[in-house]
Each structure stands twice: as C-alpha cells, then as structure tokens.
UniProtKB/TrEMBL annotation:
UniProt GO molecular function: monoatomic cation transmembrane transporter activity
Keyword hit for Transmembrane: yes
GO biological process: metal ion transport
Family, as annotated: Belongs to the TrkH potassium transport family.
InterPro entries: Cat_transpt
Name of this protein: Potassium uptake protein TrkH
PANTHER family: TRK SYSTEM POTASSIUM UPTAKE PROTEIN TRKG-RELATED (PTHR32024)
Length: 279
C-alpha cells in the first residue's frame, strides 16, 4: 500500500467503518500480509477497549478470563472453521487462500467493519446463509463495532439454556451468570426486549423496503447490513456491488436504519414515545 492508502485504511479499520480508497475494497490488494494485518486490527477494534487497556498494562489474565472475550474468539473460530471447511469442499481454492478468505470475511462482518476480499455471494448457498447469520452478531460491548453485540447474544443463549433447566427443575434457583456474577432479571428482560425490537424492526423494514427494492434477497441484505452498520449485504448490494443504484427514498430509509442501529434502538425509539414528550 501507499502511505495514503495505509493511513486511510488504518483509520477506517480501527473505527470499524469499512470504507476503502478502492472500489474493490481490500480485494484490490492480493497480498496475504496486508489482509492478515487488517484481520488482526479488525479483531482488536471489535474487542472491548477496556480489555485492550488491560493488555497494554500486562494484565493478560484478566483479558482471557473475560467471558465475552472468550465467546468473541469462540464465534470467530467456529464460524471460520465452518466456512473454511465449506470452501475446501465446494471450491477449488487452495488451503491457505480458503482459510484467509473465510477468516477475513468472518472477522470483517462480526466486527461490522465491512471490508471484503471475496464475493461470498458466489459461494455455495449454505455458506451465504452462514454469512447472513453473522449480520446479527456484532462486536463486543465497549468496542467500535455495531450490531447486536456479543454480550447480548451470549446472555440470550444462556437464558434459553437455563430456561430449559428450570423446566426440568422447577424448584431450583438457576440464575444466569456472566463473568461469574449473577445477572439481574431486569437486565435479562432488557436483552430479550432488545432482541424482540431488533427483529421486529428488521422484518417490518424488509417489508417496507421491498416496496422500493422488489428483490427480497437484496431487501433483506440491505436492511440487515444497515441495522448492523456492516456495509455489504446480499443481492445487488453484496460485497461486489454498492448502494449507488438505490432509489433516493431507499437511501433515506436505509440511512435512518443505520442511525437506529448505531444508537442501539432504544435511544431513538424512546423519541417516538408520547410519555417521553410529556415528561
């Protein structure tokens, strides 16, 4: 990279913004070194910056004991392994390139950076569905990443698992624990409400956007990537395309969704509550 390109990509990587100086994004540079460097700093940008501060001061034990960080790594490793295996089976890519493409796309999307080195829409549909599922994860709390956030995903999964245990043992007191501390019912309710609002807004917005973009795949991809502040979507807004062709009304609508997702729903939705204005 030139100095100009490297400065620009450093800024947009650590901000998980995903903008590139090239239309082809990071795919413009076929250098494995460049791509691995960006992978590392996307991973860092999607990590809680408190943990980065602790790591700088040598407190690595606290970093690796953090439960959200463990799940953050687990999700990245797990989804990378699935996509990597799928690419080896369904494509003619070499071992290293398949691994790099899988890892780059997973880290880029789960941190909501939005860079691309491969067009995942050309992969087998199973892998595209996996990529689409990543749109609903997001980075760690306290990071520059957008999306739902890893902490909420983990609390939702834990609460669902413990709810099954409570059904089997109705007299047992089984609290949801995070970082070895019991999570209050208020927080669990807040997380469940967030998920409910998030997916209701996703489905309703997809329906509305189909009035502008009749292709359902493109509509779902555009809405999901806007809510999650990711960048590339599906269909005609995939990683090999952009949003230049979207109708102005669609751009206004997607801009609102990006704002809604970045402010994490409740901050914006409360403005539409009559009780807020009465106070």
């Amino acid at each position: 990279m030139t100095l100009f390109d490297s400065v620009n990509h450093s800024l947009t990587t650590m901000a998980t913004g995903g903008y590139s100086t090239k239309q082809a994004s990071i795919a413009y540079w076929s250098s494995p070194y460049i791509q691995y460097v960006i992978i590392f700093f996307m991973f860092l940008a999607g990590t809680n910056f408190t943990l980065s501060y602790l790591a700088i001061h040598g407190k690595f034990d606290k970093v690796f004991k953090n439960e959200e960080f463990k799940y953050y790594i687990l999700f990245i490793v797990g989804f990378t392994a699935i996509i990597f295996s799928g690419l080896l089976i369904s494509t003619q890519l070499g071992f290293e390139l398949a691994f790099r493409d899988a890892l780059f796309q997973v880290v880029s999307i789960i941190t909501t950076t939005g860079f691309a080195t491969a067009d995942y829409l050309t992969w087998t549909p199973f892998l595209t569905i996996i990529i689409f599922a990543l749109f609903f994860f997001g980075g760690s709390a306290g990071s520059t990443g957008g999306g739902i956030k890893i902490m909420r995903v983990v609390l939702l999964l834990k609460n669902s698992y413990y709810e099954l245990r409570r059904l089997l043992h109705p007299n047992a007191v089984i609290p949801v624990r995070f970082n070895r501390r019991a999570v209050s019912e208020h927080i669990i309710t807040n997380v469940l409400a967030f998920f409910m609002f998030y997916f209701i807004i996703f489905f309703l917005s997809t329906i509305v956007y189909t009035l502008i973009e009749p292709d359902l795949e493109s509509a779902m991809g555009a809405v999901a990537t806007s809510l999650g502040n990711i960048g590339p979507g599906l269909g005609n807004v995939g990683p090999a395309e952009n949003f230049h062709h979207v109708h102005p009304a669609g751009k206004w609508f997607l801009a609102f969704l990006m704002l809604l997702g970045r402010l994490e729903l409740f901050t914006v939705l409360v403005l539409f509550s009559p009780a807020f204005w009465r106070k």
